[in-house]
Amino acid sequence: MSNEKTKNEGSGSKQEKKAAASEKNEPALEKSPSDKTDEQSRQRLTGNDGGRCHTMMIDIAERKKYEDELILARNVAEQASQVKSQIISRMSHEFRTPLNAISGFAQMLEVNPEEPLSDWQKQKVEQILKSSDHLLELVNDLLDLAAIEASKIKMHLQPVNLMMHVQESLDLMQPLADKHQVTVRITRASSAEQYVQADRIRLKQVLLNLISNAIKYNHPNGSVNISWLLTSAGTVRINITDTGTGISEVDKPSVFEPFNRLYLQDNGIEGSGIGLAISRQLLERMDGKIGVISRLGEGSTFWVELPRNQPPE
Q: Where a domain ends, among 114, 149, 184?
């Protein structure tokens, strides 16, 4: 029996040796591309030096400090802007009350039948009224600007009939056009009604400002043309073209800045220098935009683009 056991162990040992020999002779399986990539990545990570991992550390303290300074500067600027808007709003309200009183008393003097004014007195009262109206306009513009910057103006966007809106604005500006001997006309590209997406009141405010400027900065017997067209972007562009003094290339980038009347402040034409800045901000809140095409001495075209809309049902 021991002999059989010895034989079995011997035969088992021979079988194990044959299996080991066959494994050595078998061809090795090829590695897949992903396996090769993983192995290359491990080699790069370990540096091919026995499995050790190399780590590179970067000091970002300076960058973090710079980012913190930027955040702090932005917060300070926003806080300063809010404080400025609050001061402008409060001061404007304080100015409006006495200005209304001055204007009211001047009007009473002008139309008092019991004590008629002399020609000299009438001239002075007219100057008072003219100056108070100008200051009230400036105060109202300041209030609008402060409200826009503080995001206190709510927009009620809706389909607006462009022809009707432009005609209403033109009717309001006709006395000013007659005074300056300027002809204002509307040119329609087609008879089809055109609608834009806008706030009715704020769009009229923009149109009145642009038409008013086109009249005031024109010359006697000059003209203003209002037209509109569809753009390839699906918006409606309104063009207000005048035959006035025009704007130089140097001054164009500053034309929409608040209180910047360029060289026009010395020509005797009244204005706050805020209207175009307000118009731009109002249009931006209506998903619109504004721009100017002009050449000094040849007139200007101020354009407004607004999203096109369908007539209300």
A: 149
